[in-house]
Please model this.
Amino acid sequence: MSLSIGKEVAALKKMTVKELRDKYAELFDDETRTGNKRE
Model:
């Protein structure tokens, strides 16, 4: 994957809480402890 850091952060900011939780689980092979999303 050759996305720049800025593009990756922009994509993460547009994700829903569920999408972020799924991404976290994919990357760290663990579930998140909270379902909050800070702006």
